[in-house]
Write a structure and sequence with these properties.
heterodimer; A: alpha+beta; 8 helices; B: alpha+beta; 6-stranded antiparallel β-sheet; 6 strands
Chain lengths: 181, 167
């Protein structure tokens, strides 16, 4: 009985720890009707890295610890303004800082990141429209020099071809027209 | 709305209240596009070094920057009215005019705010019948290098920073 209680407490602590990673948004809405909720754990990302040709790409992908995606499409988003305020307050309290905000028409895009000891530990992208909501949260440990090496490996002609939009699938076209990341 | 307001307020602690109010007045207006780049973004970018000399130029410039705000629209029917409204809000005593360009119906003005030899704010205002841009850049700004940023940023309206180089 005692072991069962300890087990239960440990599991609950584990769950609350997971909830803290996305400050409530993912866990609150993942089971809603119309929600597309995906969590890719570390082992799955590690397994996915085997399919990459370049060793450097494999190494970089293995720095990603967890990816969470929550999407609502083609229906009014249940994520309220109050949820967003709570999310941003919690994020700020936990050192997840806003890097970029773009509003174009009724599309809002925010990029937030947490850094610690010369590395990016978390990256969150939020896209909000009246009929669309997307949250992508990436927990990782990528050092700045590794980002620099990644940028060096991307050939310049692939970074931006003349007259061709770079591939940033998360960002709506209207936003990509204004700011090209 | 509220977090966005705080974000903007935090980004421009030293900026003139009238300009701040102008940004706030139109930041929820759907005719405009709003871009905000936080000091943290500039700080992160300045830590990433690559072998690309173009990137290194941008990195050198953004290292001293603390914020960027852009309010832009290219589908207005009263661009010049807005331009005049914004123009009236720029306090001539606080900012020194860096350049004025009038090309056809397009007006471009750039002001800077300096303390001693250091420029700590750059304000760009563009007005045309169908276009309006208000761009505010804060931090330690090197005018010789700031035109490099227009390529690095690739934000609508930022291409006017190129004019500093030409002049």
């Amino acid at each position: 009985m005692k072991q069962l209680l300890i087990g239960l407490i440990v599991s609950l602590l584990g769950i609350s720890g997971l909830q803290a990673q996305d400050y409530g948004l993912y866990w609150k809405y993942k089971d809603y009707d119309g929600a597309i909720a995906i969590t890719a754990p570390r082992w799955a990302i590690h397994a996915g890295s085997w399919f990459l040709d370049e060793k450097a790409d494999r190494k970089l992908l293995r720095k990603v610890r967890k990816v969470r995606v929550l999407v609502f499409e083609d229906e009014p988003s249940p994520v309220s303004a109050l949820d967003m305020r709570r999310f941003l307050t919690k994020a700020k309290n936990r050192n997840l800082e806003e890097l970029l905000f773009v509003r174009d028409g009724n599309t809002r895009v925010s990029v937030l990141a947490k850094e610690r000891k010369n590395s990016i530990r978390k990256l969150v992208v939020l896209v909000r429209e009246p009929e669309t909501f997307a949250l992508v949260s990436v927990r990782c440990k990528i050092r700045y020099d590794e980002i620099g090496k990644l940028l060096d490996r991307i050939p310049k002609d692939k970074q931006k071809k003349d007259g061709e939009e770079p591939e940033v699938p998360l960002l709506p076209t209207s936003v990509r027209n204004v700011i090209r990341l | 709305m509220l977090p966005l307001f705080y974000l903007f307020a935090a980004a421009a602690p030293a900026q003139n209240d009238a300009i701040n109010r102008f940004f706030h007045q139109y930041m929820e207006d759907e005719r405009f596009t709003v871009v905000f780049v936080s000091p943290k973004m500039f700080s992160l970018v300045s830590k990433i070094s690559t072998d690309d000399p173009e990137w290194e130029n941008v990195r050198e410039v953004v290292g001293g920057l603390t914020g960027l705000r852009v309010l832009t629209s290219d589908s207005l029917d009263n661009g010049l009215t807005l331009y005049k409204e914004a123009l009236s809000k720029v306090p001539a005593g606080e900012y020194s005019e860096l350049l004025t360009v009038r090309d056809g119906k397009e007006n471009v003005r750039i002001w800077v705010k300096d303390s001693g030899n250091i420029i700590n704010e750059l304000l760009l205002l563009v007005g045309a019948p169908d276009e309006f841009v208000l761009l505010s850049l804060t931090g330690t700004i090197d005018l010789d290098k700031i035109s490099n940023l227009s390529k690095g940023l690739d934000i609508q309206g930022a291409e006017h920073l190129e004019k500093i180089k030409k002049n």
